[in-house]
Design a protein that fits this description.
With about 700 residues, the chain is of the alpha+beta class. It is about 30% helix and about 15% strand. The protein is globular and about 90 Å long. It starts with a helix and ends in a 10-residue tail after the last helix. About 5% of the residues have low confidence.
């Protein structure tokens, strides 16, 4: 129970709290009801007309003593000019969100929430107001999560140069910070920002502050980072004044330094976590490929995009590739609390189904050529080559009927690699080496086997190689690839195997969360599961124009899938790297090239299975396949002209089907068939030109 002194201290804090003004729109209504112009009000309060405009559009707030005078005036007007159809306006003692007036530390920290940022008990949260149309163009508002009492203002805020911090849900906070150190202190003690953990054994998400160019300059940072490297790879030098300020205040930077995504923290003391993530927009923190158009949006819209992403996926911690990897760990924490039988104390212990806390070296064939496992052992036995398709059918294999069809139509599988991650059993323990093992499709691992005897229709790519050519001898394959040879009716006799005894569906929660995020965001754009195929194609045609903010969220979700999988095998980066050295990514338990290979292998096999079924049902063969995009010759400019349908009008199972769910197809592009054949004769891949994409899974920064 709180003591008398604590209760009086809390009451005094409320008495000393600055008055809260009504919403900006109400301020303007009261002034207009009184017949007073902005210029006249500015004269009375001895300020400028622009300041009054800023107060009425939500860009800034007055400070004492002007605040008290403005408060008194508004209270008087509210009594004389009540809102139409309602009682007289209250003396504006509450803001649009009552929760914002509660002390941010009123929540008692428990063992189930050990990572909550430290907040002084008597410190009131900053006044919050609603963003107005002057700073935030009208847009359909996405569903927001229920507020966590510890984080009343959501997971993040976008800070502009005037001190306005735009949070999710249209909330605007006043941030008085003039330096990066002050910004960190304000974020942890006053902002009410953060997000609850995604798993009961995990930790809460640290608050994210996104800086506009004006805010960065105000805090002493350069507006742009210049150098010969990509801007996202640049960092402030250690002798930069801002870096010195951070260090002097006893804060720390991660090994990534002060770059576009800077993490500023102090060592954990007890159960209190003190860490703030910064993202600098003008330093290309939001890559245009993953966040199309977001960096150019108004701060309130940026907060909306990032807020929806944080709610449905995770609070961004870096590039979408980094966020994809962080999401895996957040949903499968490496440790859980276990009781020491000798002392009775609760201590961190291994969390079953996770990748643990220690990095694990891959088997030599699963490594990359520059990995120490391969370099130090002199490995020359070959490597896994489980990559996405880049295949084009030889022009000589086109028949006359195909050449007379007028169109080449591209079909793209929705987040094909995410679909492949569903119910995917992967290895969780270290690989064990076996000679001449009996193949078991249920055991994840790498198998040395000769698949050159498997016959496949030459009009289809080989399912065993990324370029679609037939294998010429023994090679290393992931379990799904070898299992498909058995599915085709061929005997397989592995020569060697690197297999894992402990297994689990590690990616299941990752798949489920991203699938829901993808489907929900498509639904916000008007693409729902109840649409028939024709309506689905029409909705996909216009979905990017329905709401640019939500379209950007959709692009970021797709990039998170691709980048997260690619990040499982991050290659060395930077000019200082020397072959044979260990690079930083190898210190992560999530550096797991075997899991990446399993996802890609399953996705490629799924694609080939659909290609075979399509050929059986329709007699059609693809012109080209690029990653998750396949191009077919067609009599019309729509997939409806060649996809297999039953007499009832329902799609035939087994082949390509249209729909918004991961793994189903959508129209990717239409071109002239003559154009496609011409490209093929020149050695180009028509799928690349239709899709304009890349077959390589991005390994991120």
């Amino acid at each position: 129970m709180a003591s008398e002194e604590e209760l009086f201290a809390s009451v005094d804090a409320l008495l000393n709290e600055e008055p809260h003004l009504p919403p900006p729109a109400e301020r303007a209504r009261l002034r207009e009801a009184a017949g007073i112009t902005q210029a006249r009000l500015a004269t009375a309060l001895k300020t400028t007309t622009q300041s009054v405009k800023n107060w009425e559009n939500g860009r800034s707030e007055p400070k004492s003593p002007r605040l008290d005078a403005y408060q008194r005036l508004l209270n008087g007007w509210a009594a004389k000019y009540p809102a139409p159809g309602g009682a007289p306006t209250a003396p504006v003692a509450a803001t649009a969100l009552a929760a914002s007036t509660e002390p941010a530390a009123s929540t008692v920290e428990t063992a189930h929430a050990p990572q909550a940022p430290a907040v002084p008990a008597a410190g009131p949260a900053p006044a919050a107001r609603q963003a107005t149309a002057a700073r935030r163009p009208a847009a359909r508002k996405a569903a927001q999560p229920a507020a966590d009492p510890r984080f009343p203002h959501g997971p993040l805020a976008v800070l502009d140069g005037d001190g306005s911090a735009y949070a999710a849900g249209g909330i605007v906070l006043d941030c008085p910070a003039a330096t990066v150190v002050e910004l960190v202190e304000w974020t942890l003690k006053e902002s009410g920002l953060g997000a609850p953990r995604l798993h009961r054994n995990g930790k809460d998400s640290d608050p994210l502050i996104v800086l506009t160019a004006a805010a960065a300059v105000k805090l002493g940072l350069p507006e742009r980072l210049e150098g010969h490297e990509q801007r996202r790879s640049l960092r402030l030098p250690e002798d930069h004044p801002v870096v010195k300020q951070v260090v002097k205040a006893k804060w720390r930077l991660t090994q990534r330094g002060f770059g576009p995504w800077a993490r500023i923290y102090r060592k954990v003391q007890g159960r209190e976590r003190q860490c703030v993530q910064l993202a600098i927009l003008s330093w290309d923190a939001l890559d245009e490929r993953s966040w199309p158009g977001v960096a150019e949006m108004e701060p309130a819209d940026i907060a909306r995009v990032l807020g929806v992403y944080a709610h449905r996926v995770i609070t961004p911690r870096g590039s979408t590739a980094v966020s994809g990897l962080e999401l895996m760990t957040a949903l499968r924490p490496p440790t859980r609390a276990v009781q020491d039988p000798q002392t009775g104390n609760w201590v961190p212990g291994h969390n079953p189904g996770s990748l643990g806390t220690e990095p694990m070296d891959p088997a030599p064939p699963e490594a990359t050529a520059e990995h120490p496992v391969a370099v130090d052992s002199g490995w020359s036995g070959g490597f896994l080559n489980e990559e996405a398709y880049q295949w084009v059918r030889d022009v000589s294999l086109l028949n006359d009927e195909e050449c007379t069809l007028p169109y080449a139509v591209g079909l793209d599988l929705n987040t094909a690699f995410l679909a492949a991650a569903a119910r995917l059993v992967v290895g969780l323990s270290e690989p064990d080496h076996f000679h001449a093992p009996t193949f078991n499709p249920k055991i994840p691992g790498s198998w040395l086997v000769d698949l050159s005897h498997v016959e496949v229709d030459p009009r289809l790519p080989s399912p065993f190689t990324p370029d679609g050519t037939r294998p010429t001898g023994p090679a290393w394959y992931q379990s799904h690839t070898v299992a498909y040879a058995q599915e085709l009716g061929y005997n397989v006799q592995p020569l060697e195997g690197y297999l894992r005894r402990e297994t689990g569906a590690y990616l299941d929660p990752w798949h489920d969360r991203l699938k829901n995020a993808y489907v929900d965001t498509l639904a916000d754009l008007g693409v729902t599961r109840d649409l028939d195929d024709r309506a689905f194609l029409a909705a996909m045609e216009r979905h990017k124009d329905a709401d640019p903010a939500m379209a950007a969220v959709l692009a970021a979700i797709k990039a998170t899938v691709k980048g997260g999988i690619g990040k499982l095998r991050e290659r060395p980066q930077g000019k200082k790297y020397k072959e044979g050295e260990r690079w930083p990514a190898l210190q992560r338990p999530t550096w797991r090239p075997d899991i990446r290979a399993a996802v890609i292998s399953k996705a490629r096999i799924n694609m080939h299975r659909k290609l075979r079924n399509m050929a059986t049902m329709t007699g059609l063969y693809p012109l080209a396949v690029l990653s998750d995009c396949v191009v077919y010759p067609s009599p019309g400019d729509s997939p409806l002209d060649f996809l297999p349908y039953a007499a009832s009008g329902k799609p035939q199972p087994g082949g390509f089907r249209l729909g918004p769910t991961p793994g189903l197809a959508k129209l990717e592009g239409v071109q002239s068939m003559l154009w496609a054949v011409d490209l093929m004769e020149q050695g180009y891949n028509p799928a690349r030109h239709i899709k304009g994409g890349d077959a390589v899974l991005d390994e991120g920064e």
